[in-house]
Amino acid sequence: MKQLAAFFQKEWMEQMRSGKLFIIIVVFMLFGIMNPAMAKLTPWMMEMASESLAESGLVVNEVTVDAMTSWTQYYKNVMMPMLVFLLMYSGILTAEYQKKTLINMVTKGLDRWKIVISKMAIVFLLWTVAYWLHFGITYGYNAYFWDNGIAEHVGFAALCIYILGVWLISLILLMSVLSSSSAGVLLCTAGVYGVCYFAGMLTKVKEYLPTQLMNAGELLSGAGNVEDYNLAIAICVIWFVVNVLGAVVLFNRKNL
Question: What is the dihedral of CA 20, 24, 27, 29, to 10 degrees?
Answer without folding.
Answer: -140
